[in-house]
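User: Can you fold this complex?
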Amino acid sequence: MAPWRSLRWQIAALVAVASGVVALAVGLLVHRSTLERSLSLGRDRAVTALLADSPGAADPGPLPAALAARIGAPGTYATWYDDRDPDVPWMWAATGARAVKIDMGGDLRNLRALDRHIVLASLGVLGLVVPLAALAAELPNRRLRRVARTARRVADGDLEARTSAGRGGDEITGIAAAVDTMAAALHDRLRVEQRFTADVAHELRTPLMGLVTSAELLPEGEATDLVRDRVGVLRVLVENLLEISRLDAGAESAERVEVPLGRFAGDCVHRAGLAAEVTVHGDPVAVTDPRRLDRILANLVVNAHRHGSAPVEVQVEDTTITVRDHGPGFPESLLAEGPQRFRTGASERGRGHGLGLTIAAGQARVIGARIGFANDPDGGAVATVRLS
Amino acid sequence: MSVSVLLVEDDEVIRRSVGMALERYGYRVASAADGLTGLERFHAGGHDLLLLDVMLPGLDGIGLCRRVRETSLVPILMMSARGDALDVVSGLEAGADDYVVKPADTSVLVARIRALLRRATPAPGGTPRLVFGDLTVDPEALEVYVAGEQVSLAPTELRLLLEFAANPGIVLDRQTLLHNVWDYGWDGDSRVVDLCVQRLRRKIGADRVETVRGFGYKLRR
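Assistant: Here's the predicted assembly.
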């Protein structure tokens, strides 16, 4: 935000304009009434001089046409303010027979001095009031900034953040209270969702663990293999669904450490137990969450094997990791909309639940990585993970 | 003589199947279906390792863990079906040495049990006493003294301290500690390190183990 757009300077400018307008109006009024008073005094003096016929009055010289036009019936008199030369004004008074003029220069100088004082006083007051207004505006400004900061923290996932605006019944307290209410509502909803996920996890995993260990105890045989295979699938499915619901709840946060990407990618592929050719350029190191990156990479490699075909290539260059297979490529819908759960484009891509890529994308969001899906012109799906 | 594991788990199928599976691996297994019975069985004695579920009727796994730690340094492995931060953190804070998230393969359980038991047995000797200020570590007798007073450390805490003592003044990052003390790879949960360091600090003095923000921990010489 440009500093001049700050509310503080807007308020200061408003105060300055308002004070300026008031000063101008008062100045004009004072100027006018003073001018009128000195004109009326000048007129009286001129008429007195005319009637007194004092010999001291200077010879006024030829009668100006404007004054001559005003003189009516004999015995009456007329006055005229002569400001033909704005610096040397005169007040004329004339009957049909004679005329006098009084020097008004002193009054003019007094009036100008008054104007100057008004302007100086106005400027002085403005010089005092504008900084004061700016200072006074700092208080609501600070409160507003705190509200904005809190709202941003809430948006960044800190749902415990509160404005704690407290007292005062003004609009800022209102908006602060609204932000607090919003954060509290979000917090409650998230807690309920997390609670639910945790409960579901418990309810699903407890019988599953019994199933897993019992299946391990079965005597070897074809039927046992079938049971173990299905138990394995069920287990992966449950874990994936729980992971997605945790990601959806938005409660995940990254735990970053320095990770040497080359060695890491090799370990990860090795742990996944699948064949992939790992190529590392240089010795790249990234600060990221290794557990989540491991999930992303493993899911991409598993996906490449399940839906694409060998050879699967993993390339690490700088902080970009590419996983490429040589199968039919990603389906159009995935390229267009990104990974969708339980949608695999089954006809051309084989079986699966479409959860692996959804999880990879979700985990990438948590660690602040960008993940892109594309098809190579020479065939094959290409998933690109850009860290940092 | 074979190793005796006390399994406290309320789900009957898990209790029986894990018991049978561990017996196949040569462990002796005693089991209990709730926390209080588990505590009784434990006090009856003769167990080399505790395998606890977190959610138990009556006294829960965390409470049980705390009660056991009041008197014993026996290795404790927790099993949690929830695996969320609260369960894991409270379990480790209560004094558990490690945790697994259900469902766990028997092979994983056995690997963790072996790692824990390895920590509980003395390391090969021949190393002199190490002295860091008022902290004295005897790697041979596995004894630790603070200002002349012996303190008792749980096996994981002891392994962690030995790892620090072997690299005094050197910053050890969480991954290294996970690998060397817990036998984990990249997939380990570094919270176990943080919580174990906290417990270690409570016993040997908070300023002895220094946090190096963003990297890990080091032992102050």
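Chain B has a mean pLDDT of 84. The first helix of chain B runs from residue 12 to 24.
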